[in-house]
Amino acid sequence: MPKKPKVLEGDSDGTVVLERRTQKTRPPPMYQVLMLNDDYTPMEFVVIVIQEFFGKDLETATQIMLKIHLDGRGVCGVFSRDVAATKVDQVMDAANKAGHPLQCVSEPLEP
Ligand code: TYC
Prior knowledge:
By secondary structure, this protein is α+β, with helices and mostly antiparallel strands. The chain contains three helices and three strands; from the N terminus they run βααβαβ. The chain has a single domain (28-108), classed as CATH 3.30.1390.10.
């Protein structure tokens, strides 16, 4: 006659729990998309790009552009990793097609 399996760790069905999870799962990191200043890209072009790809109104886009112009860099939006990468591609594409040296990067935010 087969022996009944021994119950460990209080489970009633005979299964053995080797390790219980002690850490909570973290939400995936978010990424900020930044544009960098340069001396050649026209201000108007940057404002249009911020409106078009980041959904900002004219006033907000102008404020972000001026911050980049004065500080060297500025945040245009915060997104999941894939969306942030797409935004960077879209901005770089538009800048290259227009012949401007505008640079756009994404970086993870602190968890
Ligand atoms: N510094 C540029 C100029 O004076 C304007 C500019 C702003 C360029 C923001 C890039 O990400 C940028 N024409």
